[in-house]
Amino acid sequence: MSENAGQPKPDDASAADASAATDAAVDPITDAPTPDAADGSGAADNLSTDDIERLLAEASGGLDQAVNHPVSADAEPAPFQLDPLQDSPGELDRQSVDLLGDVELDLRIELGRTQMRLDEVLQLRSGSVVALDKLAGDPVDVFVNGRLIARGEVLVMNDNFCVRVTELVGV
């Protein structure tokens, strides 16, 4: 007689419960653990039998409809018709230009350009003269947000420099 014969066996009922819990936590199709098995929350238990039956009925209804209405390879698709567009009464009101009054733009007037080496820039002092690639009286370029939009001439008005726009540059 063996030594274990008189001792009680491990609880077979608890082993069966553990096996059933493991089986419930494994997807029967892929044999992979379900997400519920990892967190133990039992979210699948929240679905009622009525919910499952309703989902199955919807799925089978969709399958029946697909089987009863087969699509032939010769079938021509019907074009989609859009209704004509109509103006709504509120869109005809025009807004004034004052609406753009708060829009900030980067305006730059370029008198001319030059290229200088770094040591030449470091030698600049008050009163230094920098030669530009444009002559006096040539039109200056007007840039808005980095895009050339106009050319004009420099004027002095009330001891301030001004630019009179003489040409708008097309886009």
Folded structure, characterized:
- Among the domains are: 12-40, no CATH class; 105-168, SpoA-like (Surface presentation of antigens (SPOA)), CATH 2.30.330.10.
- 25% of the residues lie in helices and 17% in strands.
- It is built from four helices and four strands; from the N terminus they run H-H-H-E-H-E-E-E.
- Strands 1-2-3-4 form a four-stranded antiparallel β-sheet, with no helix packed on it.
- The N and C termini lie far apart (104 Å).
Which terms summarize this structure?
4 helices; Surface presentation of antigens (SPOA); four-stranded antiparallel β-sheet; 17% strand; alpha+beta; 171 residues; single chain
- Strand arrangement, largest sheet? 1-2-3-4
- Uncertain spans: 8-23, 37-41
- Give the fraction of residues assigned to helices: 25-40%
How does CATH name the architecture of the domain at 105-168?
Roll
> Number of helical runs?
4
Order of helices and strands: HHHEHEEE
By DSSP, the count of extended strands is 4
Domain Flagellar motor switch protein FliN-like C-terminal: 99-169
GO cellular component, one term: plasma membrane
Region (Disordered): 1-91
Main location: membrane
